[in-house]
Amino acid sequence: MIVLGIDPGYAIVGYGVIEYQSNHFKVLDYGAITTEAHTPFNERLERIYDCACMLISKYKPEAMAIEKLFFNTNQKTAIDVAQARGTLVLAAQKAKMPIYEYTPLQVKQSVVGYGRAEKKQVQEMTRIMLNLEKIPRPDDAADALAMAICHCHCAGSLIGSLNRY
Length: 165
What we know:
The chain is an alpha/beta fold. Helix content is 48%, strand content 22%. A five-stranded mixed sheet has the order 3-2-1-4-5. A hairpin with a 2-residue loop joins strand 2 (12-21) and strand 3. Helix 1 packs parallel to helix 2, helix 3 (104-111) packs across helix 5 (139-154) and helix 4 (119-129) crosses helix 5. The protein starts with a strand and ends with a helix. The mean pLDDT is 92.
C-alpha cells in the first residue's frame, strides 16, 4: 500500500509518501509544498493544488491521510488553512483516492503509543520507524510522514474505516 500523508497549511504543506508492505515501511518521498507570503492567496491555493496533483500522479498512492483540523484561536488562519486543505482534498478526490482524517492525538497514539506525546518524541519515533538517519525537515514533512504511518497502522482496523472522509 502506498500512502500520501499530508500536514495541511497554506504557507507550508508537509507531505510524505510511504510504501507499507508486510509491516515494513519504505519512504518514497517527503518534503514541503511552499508558497510565498506576498503571493495572492488564490495563486497560493492553485500552487498547492497543482503540486498535490503532481505528487498523486507521480506516486499513485492508494490513500491520502490528512490531519483533521481543529482551531480554537485565530479564525483567519483557520479559514485559510481550511481552504488550502480543501484544495488538497479536491486533488485526492479528482484522482478517486480514498481520503482519511486523523487527529493529532490519533497520530501520536499510533506512532509513539501515547496520545499526549511531545512533538520531538513523534519526530524521533517517525525517524526510527522509517529507518532514516535524521529527523525529516521541515517539521511539516515529519508530521506528514507520521500521518502516513498512522494510516498504515489503522487502515485495516475499525479506526481506519471510521476516519474515512
